[in-house]
């Protein structure tokens, strides 16, 4: 056997076997990208020829493009059939390009791909105005949302996910709602210093994703995201 090849190489595997590794749980049309991250850059997952002759983007594309196309096809099901295939290709290509461009900023680009794809699809191919007012409001908001803003929000959610629950609550009430540190401390039966120190630690942990001034300028979005983490 050629030592350059290895039995479980992601590049040499057939598509079902590859997808079983990349998306180990959930049905094929699951709208969540709960998949192992960094596989395209994991040298141990690729045989020597696949590693040498396929660049990092090609490996990334091989692992995720098929599932991404399937998801976008569902998102654009409102389009006529003859238009949908071309639209799916365009949205998928733009999504992959955005993910690759932002890969250093996004810690888990694979898990952001469905959100980026959905916003890209809505921006390029908005639904007809036959939807309900609530749906329209959501769609219009989405179409006005630039990809960079979406990436910022994904980063915010990733950083918030790392904070302990109490730290998120202190941050939400003290900084987002504007409660005084003493008031928050009284509500939770802790010392004022506990609230201020926890809030400071939380902001410091999030600083790599958002500069503090940027954090304050999108206060409404911060409220929405933290509320999601606390109450949904």
What would you note in describing this structure?
The protein is mainly alpha-helical and 232 residues long. 66% of the residues lie in helices and 0% in strands. The chain has twelve helices and no strands. The chain has helices at residues 15-22, 48-53, 56-75, 81-101, 109-124, 133-143, 147-162, 165-176, 181-188, 192-206, 212-217, 219-231. Helix 4 crosses helix 5 (109-124). The longest helix is centred in the middle third of the chain and has 21 residues, at 81-101. The model is unreliable at 129-146 and 215-220 (pLDDT under 50).
Sum up the structure in keywords.
232 residues, mainly alpha, 66% helix, 0% strand, globular
Number of strands: 0
Considering DSSP H and I runs of 4 or more, what fraction of the residues is helical? 55-70%
The helix-strand sequence is HHHHHHHHHHHH
State the low-pLDDT regions, or none: 129-146, 215-220
Residue share in β-strands: under 5%
Average pLDDT over all residues: 76
Largest sheet: none
Overall morphology? globular
Helices and strands: which structural class? mainly alpha
- Termini separation comes to 53 Å
Rounded to an integer in angstroms, the radius of gyration calculated over CA atoms is: 21 Å
